[in-house]
Amino acid sequence: MAPEATRVLVEQLARTGNPSSLHTSGRAARRVVEESREQLAAALGARPSEVLFTGGGTEADNLAVKGLFWARRTRDLRRRRILVSAVEHHAVLDPAFWMAEHASAELVLLPVDSDGVLRVDALAEELAEHADETALISVMWANNEVGALQPLSDVVALARQYGVPVHADAVQAVGQVPVDFGASGLDALTLTGHKVGGPGGAGALLARRGLELTPVQHGGGQERGVRSGTLDAALLASFATAVSSAVDGRAAFASRVGALRDELVDGVLASVPGAVLRGPRSGRLPANAHFTFGGCEGDSLLYLLDSAGVEASTGSACQAGVPRPSHVLLAMGVDELEARGALRFSLGHTSVPSDVAALLAVLPGVVERARAAGLAVVS
Ligand SMILES: Cc1ncc(COP(=O)(O)O)c(C=O)c1O
């Protein structure tokens, strides 16, 4: 966590009082929550009343997909289509699949190009044919695996023509690229604390004023009645502090870490035969580098690197012990076997040139060993 976010968390943890209570301690806790709301809104070009605090990104994504669908469908029974890009995080994809299975939704996966960027022409075609049946569009601001920035202004411009609301999962974008909710024209936007140096378990959905959202979680009626549950003043104060300082420090972070990332990419491509950079060369998150190393399992690479002191991610979940290629890479048209050797490197505030050098020192040998082990047989 960012030191200032830790400091605020520790200071506020001793506080007692439910922010919804009317007594003195409750009102003091409420003040902390509302100041946090103002701080977070100011950092992201939103109004304080547009901030709905949640327990993280997954919850905000679920609220956006399900809440928007139900609100729109209730008003117009024809609106059954949920349009999401094929490279969304599971926090968007899975609620959309769930709605198709349990709530009569029709799921439309929008295709991407070979860099993982949404094909706006496909969205335009889809809307031209089915806008009247469309409940919502959800396209992420930036992809969490291959770092591709998505053409959101085109998405918003198209959606506006038909009055279809747009949600963007901006979990990866906040603190890495400029994010201004008001200027974006989006109807809803997800962010989370643990990607910006804040605590885990704190997030928010920014929801445009007047946007109808059916609650997913029912109870005490907190957060405009849309997200019930007692608010944690300490966690939210720390979250807002982290967002604010990540946004303040964004430009410096992006240029310093972006340069380090470029060094990493050039170094990997030069030293590992058969390494392929996935995602766009420019138009990607500054802290993200993603490669496939054909002929081996990403999991083997991950474990070998881990034992050499380098922590990386395959980006795809291992289901029941069987490695599965990432849906993001498959949507980009990457061959299934090639996609199994995927590895993502994420840099952060504490990354320094010696970290990149340490990776480059071990990676060629690691890939060689993983290739010697080969691919697991999947029946
Ligand atoms: C793009 C994206 N969306 C959603 C999430 C989920 O957020 P959380 O872990 O706060 O539930 C993540 C988490 O890594 C993510 O990368």
Model description:
It contains 13 helices and twelve strands. With 379 residues, the chain is an alpha/beta fold. It has two domains: 246 residues, Aspartate Aminotransferase, domain 2 (3-Layer(aba) Sandwich), CATH 3.40.640; 124 residues, Alpha-Beta Complex (Aspartate Aminotransferase, domain 1), CATH 3.90.1150.10. Helix 1 runs antiparallel to helix 8, helix 2 runs parallel beside helix 8 and helix 3 runs parallel beside helix 4. It is globular and about 65 Å long. The relative contact order is 0.14. The mean pLDDT is 96. The site of pyridoxal-5'-phosphate has 14 residues, from helix 3.
Task: Fill in the keyword field for this structure.
2 domains; binds pyridoxal-5'-phosphate; 7-stranded mixed β-sheet; globular; 379 residues; Aspartate Aminotransferase, domain 1; Aspartate Aminotransferase, domain 2; alpha/beta; single chain
